[in-house]
Design goal:
The structure holds two protein chains of two kinds. Chain A is 12% helix and 54% strand. Chain A is mainly β. Chain A starts with a helix and ends with a strand. In chain A, 39% of the residues are buried. In chain B, strands 5, 6, 7, 23, 26, 27 and 31 form a seven-stranded mixed β-sheet that branches. In chain B, strands 3, 4, 34, 36, 38 and 40 form a six-stranded antiparallel β-sheet that branches. The chains are: A mainly beta, B mainly beta.
């Protein structure tokens, strides 16, 4: 009977594993971000990504590709900032846009930030390996990272919603950046003494693609006599074996030809970390990640510097509609001139390569284990990613519990550049493997299409690693 | 509590169920069907905040030739760019004739007899010559004419057809022995009233041998000249013209063998006139002249002259009367009248005899506008100061009546009798748009098909400003009426305040006047522009003043609207939904 029970349990476990994997695989939708919720999760062998001084409870080897799938989006604005319910039973439409006259300017602009950010990140651990040695804990990892960041300035939405005369709108913060690279890292962590652990990770970086488009100047001036738009921007692309595709008539860049895919750059970085047990139950930690640079080769640069001025239609025909200078013909010309604001022309005067610093991240944490119930701890984490105008910060308050060795869970509340959210992680850590799933943002509401309603902060991290002893 | 704890522990101990719960929790959380992105989203956008304003630009130069098009009306034309109206009219055939004199002039037959040998006188043989010294024939020549028609009031001369006078000179001798053998420069002097090409200074000279003994000489008589106007009495006249004189001599030859003349022998001179037909006459005539002038209808006027507010004050309107008068009698038209919106009287018009003449009936003293000059023999101008009354409010037709058309009887003229002459009379009504101080015209236009362009836009108030630059020498007033697609006035729902007055220009490119204008369109009923408005009826009144009197409306005058700005108060709402 006990054997039957055990056999049934095994079958149930197998089913549940398969069911769990299925569910987890199905759950990988959309984008997510680095899982800060795992910072205080000791059962997560891949914590060394957040602080190289963190050592796994055991050696591990990750499930190929699925060792740590990290997908997410971040944003300090959400769908319900741009789409509003009409609340009109007689209307055929249930939703309307922020430009609708039924949406007040105060309501909408009150939700818009000075810099409206929307980011997307994907991290895929192709292979990861960690092993405990006499000297410490060594790791070896191959990852692919991709991040895309956009900034939409407040003035852009102010102009769209309230664009009015005798006002100047400075939209120069309008920008987007995307970067992808592969990272091969070797890490080592060791105990220095009973209190101090340090870790270091050396990374070799292979650039896959890099692109940035930004407007150094984008001014819209509306006055009674003249509407003027002045734009000055740059487009930088690093993509191996590529060239700009240009418009045949006017030569502006309208795409990229990839003749022969190749490496776009080389770089290196270093992660430094340390943990320090201040007193029993209180551990402070600090880590500086991605301190390094990437030299991008095969740089394609294009720039634009255009001024569009509209001071009225000239010679508006009054009696002859079909004339060459009819309003419709002039409007076509104006539209063409407006389009030129977004036309970039290749600039071959710059060097074909450039180097840039990586977006370093500083994590500062502290964890306090409840003396009366040592299976419960509370942590606080500050994480800052230094990325120029894309710099972001996060502060997280976390409660972590491991009632049994098998299971560890974390719930947290975090406040970041992208707003406030709740996150959590669950790690199941039987003897031979670790399965984890977590998110830094629980999604409160989604559309029927599973698009988050309230904010663009969605991420999911899921992974499966096998323990080695 | 125990049961609950047991359930929770089971869950915690069964990781995969826990995972499923967590995943479902992560994923499903709460689906808000109010944000169903598969449904249509309202694409109604409001742009511009509290208000949006900006430049619109400037119009092209709107020449009057584009607004007041000559092809709108067959009456409207331009000459040297100046606008004018023209309408041509005719008179029905004006046939004029003076009947023939039904009878032949009756001219008496004067004679002369000279008895140079009496009975019993001794006879002789051989030639004898006798002188004639200013011998007056027994009777003066006289003419009687009857059957003169009423149209002939007096006669001065007659032209004759087939008229001859036969002169017979012979010797009357019963015995037959004395013959006329020779005339020695016998000069027959006719009275002045006989007009003959065969006479020289009214004289006929007969000279030479007379083989047959009788001289018969026929002369053609072309006419009778009465010497002065002779009144007609009871359709006839009697005229005594004067005596015939003979000078010279004659020679006879006698072959008489007797001693004394058995009879008288005389020399005789006689004259006989054939029957005559009077073909033409010179005198004073009063033929019956009836002139019926066809009126001209002023239909197919251009739109800007059809409004009931139109009043014309034309500086120098004209009636151009073109007459070809084949009759050698001038015609005087008295008390002609021209009737249109008012009636004016023309005391006298003069139509020259046997000439192509043009009479300009003008408001001013002189004619100053003729786009189609006629190559005539003679031109007259008659001033009618109140001529504008005819067209002050453009009539449906203009008619000319000529109740008294008479030949000029103050002078004598020559005319063929019995011939019908046809006077060819045409006239033109010319209204050049050189105006006085009280002209008022109205131009209406419609800016339509607005609904298809506006149905996706909502704005509660639009203000358009600009500057109108005009060299048109008329003060312009604007009014704008909004209408829907059925033409119903929407003024109760939509207020349009427009700058009413645009100052007149000077009439040339160097005298452009600028007037700021403003058009403010305000909804009194929300949504009326989007839902109903389809057209603007634009009414432009144009009026002259004392400052612009004497200036002309030309097709090269223009309007430009510059510095147009538009302000949409409250922004504009655009409906981009597919409905």
């Amino acid at each position: 009977m006990i054997i039957d029970k055990q056999l049934n349990l095994k079958k149930m476990k197998t089913k549940n594993i398969l069911f769990g994997i299925f569910i987890c695989l199905m759950s990988v939708t959309g984008y997510a971000q680095d899982l800060k919720s795992s910072y205080f999760m000791k059962s997560d062998n891949l914590r060394h990504d957040l602080n190289p001084a963190f050592m796994g409870e055991s050696g591990y080897v990750s499930f190929p590709v699925l060792g740590n799938v990290n997908v997410g989006t971040q944003g300090n604005v959400g769908l319900n900032d741009f789409l509003y319910k009409t609340n009109d039973a007689s209307s055929q439409y249930k939703l309307t846009t922020f430009l609708s006259p039924t949406v007040s300017s105060d309501d909408f602009m009150g939700k818009i930030k000075k810099k409206n950010r929307i980011n997307a990140n994907v991290g895929l651990t192709l292979f990861s390996f960690g092993a405990t040695t006499k000297r410490g804990y060594n790791t070896f990892q191959l990852k692919v990272k991709s991040s895309t960041q956009t900034i939409l300035p407040y003035e852009l939405f102010d102009f769209m919603k309230n664009g009015t005369s005798n006002k100047e709108y400075d939209l120069k913060n309008l920008s987007a950046r995307s970067r992808s690279y592969a990272e091969l890292s070797v890490g080592h962590a060791r105990h220095i003494n009973k209190r101090l652990d340090i870790g270091i990770k050396l990374k070799a970086l292979v650039g896959i693609a890099n692109a940035e488009a930004k407007f150094d100047q984008l001014q819209v001036t509306l006055s009674d006599d003249q509407w003027q738009v002045h734009s000055r921007g740059t487009l930088n692309v690093n993509l191996g074996g590529s060239s700009f595709r240009k418009d045949k008539k006017e030569g502006w860049v309208n795409g990229i030809n990839v003749d022969k895919a190749g490496v776009a750059g080389w770089g290196g970085a270093i992660d430094l970390g340390a943990t320090y047990k201040v007193i029993d139950g209180l551990t402070a930690s600090a880590a500086l990640l991605d301190l390094g640079m990437m030299k991008w080769t095969t740089m394609l640069k294009a720039s634009s510097d255009e001024t569009f001025t509209f001071d009225g239609f000239s010679n508006i025909p009054v009696k002859d509609d079909g004339k060459e200078n009819s309003i419709s013909n002039q409007w076509t010309g104006i539209r063409d001139d407006l389009k030129k604001l977004g036309h970039f022309y290749e600039d071959k005067t710059v060097s074909s390569s450039h180097a840039e610093m990586l977006n370093a991240t500083l994590n500062l944490g502290a964890e306090y284990v409840l003396p009366s119930y040592k299976k419960l701890s509370f942590g606080i984490l500050s994480s800052t990613q230094f990325a120029g105008k894309y710099t972001s910060t996060l502060a997280m308050l976390s409660a972590n519990v491991r009632p049994i060795k098998l299971i560890e869970a974390s719930l947290n509340c975090n406040y970041s550049t992208y707003g406030t959210s709740f996150g959590g992680m669950l790690s199941i850590h039987p003897r031979f493997f670790t399965f984890f799933i977590g998110t830094d943002c629980f999604v409160a509401k989604v559309t029927p299409q599973y698009v988050p309603v309230r904010s663009a902060n969605v991420n999911c991290c899921i992974g499966l690693n096998f323990a080695i002893y | 509590m125990k049961r609950k704890f047991y359930s929770i522990s089971i869950l915690l101990c069964n990781p995969f169920k826990l995972v499923a719960v967590v995943v479902l929790f992560l994923l499903a959380s709460c689906v808000d069907h109010g944000y169903d992105l598969s449904k249509d989203i309202d694409l109604t956008f409001k742009l511009g905040g509290d208000s949006i304003s900006g430049p619109v630009g400037s119009t092209d130069t709107v020449f009057l030739s584009k607004i007041l098009k000559v092809d709108q009306s067959d009456m409207l034309n331009t000459y040297q760019n100046k606008y004018y109206l023209v309408k041509n009219g005719n008179a029905e055939n004006i046939n004029v004739s003076v009947k023939k004199i039904t009878s032949s002039p009756n001219v008496n037959t004067p004679f002369y007899t000279y008895t140079f040998l009496r009975t019993g006188d001794p006879t002789y043989k051989g030639s004898l010559s006798f002188p004639l010294n200013n011998v007056q024939l027994d009777q003066s020549m006289a003419m009687t004419l009857t059957g003169i028609p009423d149209e002939i009031k007096s006669l001065h001369a007659l032209s004759l057809e087939n008229a001859q006078a036969t002169i017979t000179v012979k010797i009357n001798d019963a015995s037959g022995t004395v013959n006329l053998t020779h005339l020695s420069n016998m000069v027959v002097t006719f009275p002045d009233f006989i007009v003959s090409s065969d006479l020289t200074d009214h004289k006929l000279v007969l000279n030479g041998d007379i083989p047959g003994g009788v001289v018969t000489k026929t002369i053609n008589v072309q006419g009778i000249d009465l010497g002065k106007e002779t009144a007609i009495v009871d359709h006839g006249l009697n005229f005594t013209g004067g005596a015939v004189y003979l000078n010279g001599g004659f020679t006879v030859n006698s072959s008489n063998n007797v001693s004394s003349m058995p009879n008288d022998v005389s020399f005789s001179f006689s004259m006989n006139f054939s029957a005559m037909t009077v073909s033409a006459a010179t005198g004073e005539f009063d033929p019956n002249i009836n002139v019926t002038v066809d009126p001209v209808k002023l239909n197919n006027l251009p739109d800007w002259l059809q409004d009931e507010s139109v009043k014309l004050d034309i500086y120098n309107p004209e009636i151009k009367l073109d007459v070809v008068n084949p009759i050698n009698i001038p015609v005087i038209v008295k008390n002609a009248s021209i009737t249109g919106s008012g009636t004016v009287s023309i005391p006298q018009l003069y139509i020259d005899a046997a000439k192509h003449s043009v009479n300009y009936i003008t408001r001013q003293k002189a004619m100053d506008f003729d786009p189609s000059p006629i190559n005539a023999d003679i031109y007259h101008t008659t001033q009618v100061s109140n001529l504008n009354d005819v067209i002050a409010t453009i009539p449906k037709q203009i008619s000319i009546t000529m109740p008294s058309v008479k030949a000029d009887q103050s002078v004598e003229h020559s005319i063929e009798l019995g011939k019908t002459y046809t006077l060819d009379m045409h006239y033109q009504v010319l209204i050049p748009f050189t105006f006085g101080g009280a002209l008022n015209i109205a131009y209406n236009d419609t800016i339509d098909d607005l609904h298809k362009n506006l149905k996706d836009y909502y704005a509660s108030e639009v203000v358009v400003t600009g500057v109108v630059c005009s060299d048109i020498p008329l003060d312009l007033t604007l009014s704008v009426t909004p209408v829907d697609s059925q033409g119903n006035d929407l003024s109760q729902y939509l207020t349009i305040n427009v700058t009413k007055d645009i100052a007149a220009g000077g009439g040339s490119t160097t005298s452009v006047v600028s007037t700021p204008i403003s058009v403010a369109i305000t909804e009194k009923q929300s949504g009326i522009i989007k839902e109903k408005l389809n057209a603007f009826i634009l009414k432009v009144g144009a009026a002259s003043s004392s400052a612009t009197a004497g200036k002309s409306l030309s097709s090269d005058q223009f309007l430009i609207v510059k510095n147009i700005h538009a302000k949409i108060v409250g922004g504009v709402t655009v409906d981009l939904n597919d409905n």
